[in-house]
Amino acid sequence: MRILPEISRTFGEYLLLPNLTEDGCTPDHVDLSAPVVRHRVGEASPLRIAVPMVSAIMGAVSSPRLAIALAQCGGLAFIHQNQPIAEQAEMVAAVKRHKAGFRHSDINIKPSATLGEVGDLLAAAERDVAVVTDDGSPGGTFLGLISTSDFNVHRHDLGDSVESRMRPAAGLATAPTGISLSDANTLIWDARQDVLPIVDEDGRLASIVLRRDYELHKQFRKESIDQDKRFAVGAGVNTHDYRERVPALVAAGADVLCLDSSDGYSTWQSNVLQFVRERYGDAVRIGAGNVVDGRGFRYLAEAGADFVKVGIGGGSICITRDQKGIGRGQASALADVVRERDAYARETGQYVPLCSDGGVLHDSHMAIALAFGADFLMLGRYFARYEESPSPLVRVDGQLYKEYWGEGSQRARNAARYGQGKTLVFEEGVDGYVPFAGSLYDNVSVTLAKITSTMISCGSTTLRQFHETATAVEVSHQSYLQNSEDVRLRDRANAIV
């Protein structure tokens, strides 16, 4: 047995030292964009994201709704593979039906439906407005809109028809297909509507434009979109049914795939990578992992992985280290793999991006992971807390929580991810709750502001510069204790009279 002469360390055991902040190092000049897939050194990656955040390949995290929201913010979601192939492919297709600015209408209802039915539909989808079409389909004849402000469950008879309370098409502004997004946004503001229906020459609904999307574009500016301006989305695959799953996901429009496994240093992953390369060449991009050292990275990079995920056992709901005794502190794992990535790039001229997966408890840990050399971060608990995640919102002891479960839990029973054969013999994840944190948009905005501020203090305006010039120092237990406040906090400031 070989024992490494090191202590396995986490992001919480390091602090960053400030560098000189020069005049040009301001928030407006900070570029958080990151490469997602391999590329020649000195050239641009074929797939980049404006913010270095992707969602975990988990049933409790990545849904079409969250994927669209994250793409609007400049990140990327990976639709989970622990479901039938057709269902996963449909989730990918559901994201791809939405273009930046022009949305596929996914909340629709017939005029003959009842107010109770539309109320249930809006509540289940956590939306405020539904589009009324003659047949209740997203391509039916447009008849009107109905929102939660058009009826009240306590005032109106829930047995009444939608038609009785909807705002009819005759009184609404609509736009023809082919209208530019700029003109559509002008019209939606002039008409004082939250939704602008786009209607073809036969009166059938083609898409919708949302006022909220205009505001989000002005806030984040760089959505993750493909060449046809459809939102970008990734998808997870496994090493079992990949011969059927990969073609289905490619046909559905997935922009990038990722092998989903707790331990990716295996010939099984190499076999999948070989299958993708032989069948699609470089037309289909696929990441692999997870690994915790340079050997694992080198193996997957040479097998053709477009990016490599780093981390075993560091997730908030992962108990692989307890159950199997394998893994590594996320900071130590990332530092080792970064060295190998850079060596591989020097030797081959190919840069293979790294995705740090797990080990993040606070926003500051994201900044430290990027300073260590991660190109982007895969986050589970972080995104599971938001209203856009697919998990149920529940109240426990008066506090709102989102349900959150690991793919290695009995609830998910994702045996394929953990190499336990056809059934999950023992758990490698837990099932619990995370505190509800509200909107993804608001929280991502705050997180990006924190990362930007850290980079400015370290004198960096790009992630590459941040990694190359950052200096980290290990913290003692006493230093760690001083990271937090030592005063009694009050809920809000009170004016002194």
From TrEMBL:
EC top class, as a word: oxidoreductase
GO molecular function: IMP dehydrogenase activity
Domain CBS: 166-224
InterPro entries: Aldolase_TIM, CBS_dom, CBS_dom_sf, IMP_DH, IMP_DH/GMP_Rdtase_CS, IMP_DH_GMPRt
Cofactor section: K(+)
Entry keywords, A to Z: CBS domain, GMP biosynthesis, Metal-binding, NAD, Oxidoreductase, Potassium, Purine biosynthesis
Pfam families: IMPDH
Matching CDD domains: CBS_pair_IMPDH (cd04601), IMPDH (cd00381)
Entry keyword annotation includes Flavoprotein: no
Protein EC: 1.1.1.205
NCBIfam families according to UniProt: PRK07107.1
Family: Belongs to the IMPDH/GMPR family.
Protein's recorded name: IMP dehydrogenase
Organism: Micromonospora tarensis
